[in-house]
Amino acid sequence: MNNHLEVVIREAYEDDLEKIGELLKQIEYIWNGQTRNASSIRGVKKEIRNLVRSRGKNDGIALVAVYEGEVIGYIQAIIYRNRTPPETEVGRLVVDEPYRRQGIASQLYESLEKQLLEYMKERGTKKMKLYAIIDTHNEPSQKFFEKQSYSLEKVKERNGRYYKAEKWLRLS
Ligand SMILES: CC(C)(COP(=O)(O)OP(=O)(O)OC[C@H]1O[C@@H](n2cnc3c(N)ncnc32)[C@H](O)[C@@H]1OP(=O)(O)O)[C@@H](O)C(=O)NCCC(=O)NCCS
Question: Per CATH, the architecture of 8-170 is what?
Fold first, then answer.
């Protein structure tokens, strides 16, 4: 890494939803030969509101990266605690384009893992599988998850292909 930009990582609040929705437009994926955006702002708001309030049968963590008062990055985790062993989908990772390659996604991710380990300690969960779904064309994201010790497997479905990145988190 050439430059390292230190940012504040904090929980996402409802006031951040508009900005997060804007950032998420930068996540594109190709499905069935067509390029799509990851989400509509309305869909994201509902999802994140649920995460922030942690209602329902799953738990969640939603974090933002803040630089000079501006939200410039986002990451979330949805914990499926009813699965055996519990699984967590890490998703919607995005850093505003001008700020990339400065370690911001890494800071978001490290903070997320720390919180997941805390969650496991509180609940007496010894191990948890983390996974992320990555577009086959998204090399930055593939490299990012490999650097975080995920192993990537190509999955083929009727409408397209993608990578499933997986990693086990264990309490020592
Ligand atoms: C993927 C993404 C979140 C990475 O954010 P970032 O803040 O630039 O990542 P970091 O600076 O923390 O990079 C950490 C490591 O990831 C890998 N990496 C990140 N971007 C990369 C790129 N463009 N090419 C190759 N490797 C890359 C490198 O190993 C890097 O370490 P290094 O800089 O020491 O070589 C960012 O590119 C992004 O927002 N992309 C658009 C949204 C998206 O596709 N999200 C993924 C959805 S699954």
Answer: 3-Layer(aba) Sandwich (3.40)
